[in-house]
Write a structure and sequence with these properties.
It is a single chain. The chain is of the alpha+beta class. 37% of the residues lie in helices and 23% in strands. It is built from 4 helices and 18 strands. The strands form 5 sheets. It has a 4-stranded antiparallel beta sheet, with no helix packed on it. A 4-stranded antiparallel beta sheet has the order 7-8-9-10, with no helix packed on it. Helix 2 (24-127) runs antiparallel to helix 3. The longest helix has 104 residues, at 24-127.
Length: 398
């Protein structure tokens, strides 16, 4: 409808005419899909955030447990030092008391003899002749002289000296207390926020409007890979695992054998001296790696800078594949369990899976674990609740 009085409106189509020509059912179906897509994304966000809360609670308990472990180790060490010092004090006191008791017994014995001499001297002077008195006094005098010598010798006898038990404080205690005073925190707790991308598709139907479109997962069959760099590795033995470090050097494990550190162009830099048969490796920090030793049922933490094993984490399962993510280690067992543990070896989560082969190769990404089942010729992805997210069946060449 036109409200212009002096001009003729041209190029304006009747709304009714447009509606008549619009494919109504198709537009309605499209809108219905958009609504379902938006609802799907919203519910997915709600589910993810609910899982996020649960994961945060588990991380909270893990941090509390780590702090408690710090406190327990410190207390145990202080208790050990305290008990050791008490034992030393007890030993010293017992020795001093024993020496003093022996000295007191000697003094009492000498005092008894002197009193007996005094009685004998009194008897001699009043009851016998002068000759006998002289001889008796002489004999008693010899004995008294010996007692006098004993008394004089006591002045140089360490047993007669008074003792004090004092403690010389270890200078390291003041340094430790000073360091504790400057220690303002046992650690720093951070919240790492990962952005979730929501794709919005704007399309034209009867009217233009913002429509929320769900993100479709990429089809693995349609993915292509481009070679970024090619490295010739001359190991000469079967390789069980390899990773590219953050500084672009490469760690290559000989199956159940040596650990090789290569330069970024594939040249052998050195062999890391770690005892045992290594199988799988992952990087924790710039200078720290973790390696599984399934025959030993253990994970070894190795500092590449110092070239020392800083920690051994024993396990009750045979450990194969290994991955590190979110300050936790993910380790694969023989066939049916993926276990997530902290760096102290405490189990945070156990994920049950179905696999026809040992879980030798896996990788962790947030709350998902991707693992290969080469006997079953499949690659699977599961979440923390053991729910299978996706399944990829490669096509075998015949």
């Amino acid at each position: 409808m036109c409200f212009h009085k002096s001009f003729k409106c041209t190029g304006i189509k009747s709304l009714a005419g447009v509606v008549e020509k619009t494919k109504f059912e198709k537009s309605k179906e499209s809108l219905d899909k958009d609504i379902n897509s938006a609802l799907h994304i919203l519910m997915k966000i709600v589910n993810n955030k609910s899982g996020n809360i649960k994961r945060g609670e588990q991380q909270y308990e893990s941090i509390k447990k780590t702090i408690a472990n710090y406190r327990e180790k410190i207390n145990n060490h202080l208790d050990h030092l305290e008990e050791k010092l008490y034992h030393e004090i007890d030993t010293i006191l017992i020795e001093q008391k024993s020496e003093i008791s022996n000295l007191i017994a000697e003094i009492k014995e000498k005092s008894g003899k002197l009193k007996k001499m005094k009685d004998q001297l009194s008897a001699i002077t009043t009851q016998v002749s002068k000759l006998q008195s002289f001889l008796g006094v002489y004999q008693i005098g010899q004995q008294v002289h010996q007692c006098q010598q004993y008394v004089e010798d006591l002045a140089d006898d360490d047993r007669a000296k008074e003792f004090d038990i004092k403690m010389k404080q270890n200078d390291e205690i003041d340094k430790t207390l000073s360091n504790l005073g400057s220690l303002e925190s046992l650690g720093e707790v951070n919240v790492i926020v990962e952005k979730i991308v929501i794709t919005v598709n704007r399309r034209t139907s009867v009217r233009r409007g913002a429509q929320v479109q769900s993100r479709e997962q990429s089809n693995i069959n349609s993915m292509t890979m481009n070679i970024d760099a090619k490295i010739d590795i001359n190991i000469g033995k079967q390789i069980s695992d390899m990773i590219c470090l953050k500084d672009e050097r490469v760690i290559v494990l000989e199956k159940l054998g040596k650990v090789n550190l290569l330069t970024s162009d594939g040249k052998l830099e050195k062999q890391l001296h770690i005892h045992g048969g290594a199988f799988s490796v992952t990087q924790i920090t710039q200078d720290t790696i973790a390696i599984t030793y399934h025959k030993e049922k253990a994970i070894k933490i190795f500092n590449m800078e110092n070239e020392t094993v800083t920690k051994v984490i024993p396990l009750d399962i045979i450990c194969w594949g290994l991955s590190f993510c979110n300050n936790s280690l993910t380790v694969g067992s023989s066939t049916n369990e993926i276990r997530i543990i902290d760096l102290e070896g405490n189990t945070q989560k156990s994920i049950e899976v179905q696999s026809e082969s040992n879980l030798q190769y896996l990788v962790t990404c947030n709350d998902r674990v991707i693992y290969s089942d080469y006997d079953g010729t499949v690659v699977k992805c599961v979440d923390g609740s053991s729910k299978q997210i996706c399944l990829y069946i490669p096509i075998r060449n015949t």
